[in-house]
Amino acid sequence: MAEGARWCLGWNHSVKQFTVLDCYRHHAGNMELERSHQPDFAAGLGHTPGRGEQVSDGEGGYWIENINEPVPGNRYVLRVGSREVDHRLLWQLGDEAHRFSLSEQAAGQRVTIQLTKLDT
User: Fold this and answer.
1) d(CA 49, CA 92)
2) Which residues, 6+ apart, have CB-to-CB distance to 106 below 8 Å?
3) What is the band of 47 on the pLDDT scale with cuts at 50, 70, 90?
4) Per residue in 20-57, is it b (16+ CB within 10 Å) or e — as a string?
5) Which Pfam families match (predicted)?
6) What pLDDT shows up at residue 52?
């Protein structure tokens, strides 16, 4: 990913079935958790005071903005959920939205999501 690039990991909440998003960016050579979108205070979700700022999404849910936490080692391990969970990577290139379903490729498997810089 190029410096300044942004992407999100989305998945369907196991109880409520709505989409949860954790959004990352490439900032100064580091993968950072930038913000998170949570449509509800469902099981396992919520804002931790002092970790970003909770703001309304205008639709009954909320964004936690300005988390800006570096991801240790620029990578993390994820146990990919089933097709119902639909773990997926989402990003934008210009006007074009992109989607890659981890669940279609690796449901039930352990994967590593890692920031790799593009050679220019």
Assistant:
1) 30
2) 80
3) low
4) bbbbbbbbeebbbbbbbbbbeeeeebebeeeebeeeee
5) DUF1850
6) 86
Q: Measuring CA to CA, how many Å separate 77 from each of 41, 107, 110?
A: 25, 14, 7
Portion of the chain with pLDDT greater than 90, in percent: 65
Query: How far is residue 67's CA from residue 52's CA, in Å, rounded to a whole number?
Result: 4
In the chain, the amino acid numbered 13 is: H
Helix (H, G, I), strand (E, B), or coil: what is residue 112?
strand
pLDDT value at position 10?
97
CB 15 within 8 A of CB 42: yes
Q: What angle do CA 67, 69, 75 make, to 5 degrees?
A: 135
pTM of the predicted model as reported, rounded to 2 decimal places: 0.87
User: Do residues 58 and 41 touch, judged by C-beta distance below 8 A?
Assistant: no
CA 98 – CA 24 distance, rounded (Å): 15
Output DSSP code: residue 117: P
